[in-house]
Write a structure and sequence with these properties.
Blueprint (H helix, E strand, L loop, with lengths): L2 H24 L4 H11 L2 H12 L9 H14 L2 E5 L5 E5 L6 E7 L4 H10 L4 E3 L2 E3 L3 H20 L6 E7 L7 H10 L3 E7 L5 E3 L4 E10 L3 E2 L8 H13 L9 E3 L3 E2 L6 E2 L2 E10 L2 H22 L2 E10 L11 H12 L5 E3 L6 H6 L4 E5 L3 E2 L7 E3 H15 L4
Helix pairs in contact: 2-6, 2-12, 3-6, 3-12, 4-6, 6-12, 8-9
Length: 404
């Protein structure tokens, strides 16, 4: 063999070896972690039964107490410490770690109002059909089951995490992220990060899009058609909506939408009040502030032109933000390594929108573990995937037991 070729061959082998060492360093799985993964793989049927129980509890936003108490019961059975249901009501449990710093895992307790209506109409618990759990209440609650299973796997495998782990199923996500606000304020000063569990981990959000929802309320004189059509709240709203859509924003993934318009009830009588929804989103908080000022100016101008009162009322404000060099932070890099270990090439996004927004807006590292969890959310035939539920549990388990 040519000596120069032979040396090149050895050098190449050396580089390949270094690459393999680097990959192993990214995620080295211990025997205890393998034991935990094996435990999770055997929980398919049990996870489905847990989801029937938790997801079958009617739990619209603001009325989550029964579901929170059920989750807390599971936490106690698993062996978590300091288990409590607070006033929100959030269900919270802890696994002590080697340090007093905390890594906080978040799942959502509440459902859409439409889900609660479908549950009441059904009058029965979800059913297991093959590798799915089918029925209203299953989709969102599947992530809480994943979180509980991951916590149990940590306890059963004897892993002592590097940091103390907090598991929080939070209330009122659909109505202002109120439960997350409460948890964030409780743990922000000693946290290494927050992990919002949203799916099986095939996507990871590390930044937050700001989302501002408003009700634009219109008021004017009521009256019969024969008394004249103007002033008319509908004319005021129509002019305002048209000008709002004319605002031109193309940067920072900025978007505007009007999706709800509510006004009169009969053909021959103009209404005294009406309103429309306004949904504004951007990665740039300054852009959102500028947009709001422009909307207020539009409403003032239209009000003068039409003699209709127009008021901008905040409905739900979800803060946005970006963590500097987020992709290089331990939380994001570890989550990416875990996702890749489990066979995904995760989609990385700086435009998340969930409980994680609260932490990021506060300057704290946070991620959203997105991906698949089921389908038909909000419909009577809503369902959750059992394999995806197990995959999500594996993501949480490996992140929680990572040697930080």
């Amino acid at each position: 063999m040519n000596s120069l070729f032979y040396k090149s061959f050895l050098i190449t082998l050396g580089w390949l070896g270094m690459v393999n060492v680097i990959l192993a360093q990214n995620l080295s799985i211990s025997s205890g972690q393998m034991e935990g993964l094996d435990f999770l793989e055997k929980q398919q049927q049990r996870s489905a039964q847990m989801l029937r129980e938790i997801g079958g509890i009617i739990s619209p936003s603001g009325k989550e107490l029964e579901r929170a108490e059920k989750v807390a019961t599971y936490m106690k059975e698993i062996g978590l410490t300091d288990v409590k249901v607070d006033d929100m009501p959030n269900a919270i449990g802890v696994i002590p770690g080697k340090s007093d710093q905390v890594l906080v895992f978040i799942s959502t307790l509440d459902d859409l109002e439409t889900v609660a209506l479908h549950q009441k109409e059904s009058g029965k618990l979800p059913v297991i059909e093959g590798d799915r759990v089918v029925g209203p209440g299953t989709n969102t609650s599947s992530i809480t089951v994943s979180m509980l299973l991951a916590a149990e796997a940590i306890m059963k495998s004897g892993q002592i995490p590097s940091h103390t782990l907090v598991f929080a199923a939070v209330a009122q996500e659909e109505t202002g992220l109120k439960g997350m606000h409460h948890v964030y304020n409780q743990f922000k000063d000693k946290s290494v990060g927050f992990v919002d569990i949203l799916g099986d981990g095939r996507s990871i959000s590390y930044g937050a899009m700001g989302i501002h929802w408003y009700k634009i309320k219109a008021t004017g004189p009521a009256g019969h058609t024969l008394r004249g059509g103007l002033p008319n709240v509908n004319q005021g709203m129509a002019k305002a909506i048209d000008r709002i859509f004319d605002m031109d924003y193309k940067e920072d993934r900025t978007v505007i939408n009007v999706s709800i318009i509510e006004s009169g009830k009969v053909f021959n009588h103009k209404p005294e009040t009406a309103w429309f929804s306004l949904d504004m989103r951007s990665l740039n908080n300054e852009t959102l502030s500028e947009m709001e000022t422009k909307v207020l100016n539009i409403l003032e101008d239209v009000s003068k032109e039409t003699n209709i009162g127009l008021e901008m009322e905040p409905f739900q404000i979800t803060p946005g933000g970006q963590i500097p060099n987020a992709l290089d932070t331990p939380l994001v890099s570890h989550a990416k390594a875990v996702s890749e270990y489990l066979g995904f090439t995760p989609n990385m996004s700086n435009a998340g929108s969930s409980n994680m927004n609260i932490a990021i807006a506060g300057g704290t590292s946070a991620i959203g573990l997105g991906g698949e969890r089921g389908g038909q959310r909000g419909f009577p035939d809503e369902w959750a995937s059992i394999p995806n539920m197990i995959n999500a549990a594996k993501q949480v388990f490996l992140l929680g037991t990572y040697d930080w």
